[in-house]
Amino acid sequence: MAIFIDRKITANAYGLSSGVFWGLSGVLLALLLEDTVLSSYLLIPIVLAFLNDTISCGYMFIYLIVKGKYQAIRLIPKNKKNGIIILAAIFGGPIGMSCYILAIQYIGISYTATISATYPAIGALTSFFLLKDRIHLIGILGLILAVVCTMILGYSASTQTTSGWIGFLFAFICALGWSSEIVISSYGMNKDIPADIAYFIRQLSSSVGYLIIIILLIHSFPGVVHIFSNIELYSLLFFTSLVATLSYLFYYKAISMLQPIRAMSLNITYAIWAVIFACLLVDEPISIKLLLLCVGVSIGSFLTAVNPRNIKKLILTLK
């Protein structure tokens, strides 16, 4: 009994930690974007996303080597099932993550994190149309709650600055990309692809996707020389990538130990953590209205994705 309780506490800690670290990583990215030289480059968010995922891929490679999975890495090109993860990576990385950082640049981390937290609700809606998954009444109510809160947030963001609506659009596209990644990658994970291998493939594919975009759009790497000539900037970049990698690892561990829905419900608290960290680290204003909308989006997203039958089980596990 004691072992079961310890395992449950550990699993919950993994899920909650994934949200804490992801919220922190977004704030650290916001700190990078505060550099005046970097902010002068229009496409620097895409470059930062490329560097972030590439460094994260390096961390995962070291992690897998330490875990003795070198042979599994060698077999990646030979497994045709990995193509599913590569497709998911394109939606989650070059599309989702790029828009996430672009949104941070325009409307700040607090609004971006909260709006992007609608990805589970959008994922459930996508599954309904593409995979014919039924959406229950509680899910419909949750979706309405998430959408209404997001619309209020989007309006609030757009009235703050003339480019606020652009930031809202990027945040919404980010949620679309991440929700597509969920639907596609969950299908791939059901094909017996280990979580850590799947994440390594995801980061590697995402890095290649970014590189192609950068070569096609600008044929160079603006701001990279400045980043690596400034010890504070590249130290912050490596630390940010480490924090993001830990977030994903904790998330995958939580998924393997808990039901995916419960792991997700703990992970999407990143919107709340991002608001808190933004207030502490980058002096973004925090208000009761923002916090309430943040909680509303998180609850709405959770209710949309969760199955009513699992709600009772979820409540019982908390006792």
From TrEMBL:
Keywords in alphabetical order: Cell membrane, Membrane, Transmembrane, Transmembrane helix
Domain (EamA) ranges: 13-153, 166-304
Membrane topology: Multi-pass membrane protein
Coiled-coil spans in chain: none
Compartments it resides in: Cell membrane
Pfam families referenced in this protein's UniProt entry, alphabetically: EamA (PF00892)
Top-level taxon: Bacteria
InterPro entries per record: EamA_dom (IPR000620), EmrE-like (IPR037185)
Membrane-spanning parts: 12-33, 39-64, 84-103, 109-131, 138-158, 164-187, 208-228, 234-252, 264-282, 288-306
Family as reported in the entry's similarity comment: Belongs to the EamA transporter family.
Designated name of the protein: EamA domain-containing protein
Species of origin: Photorhabdus heterorhabditis
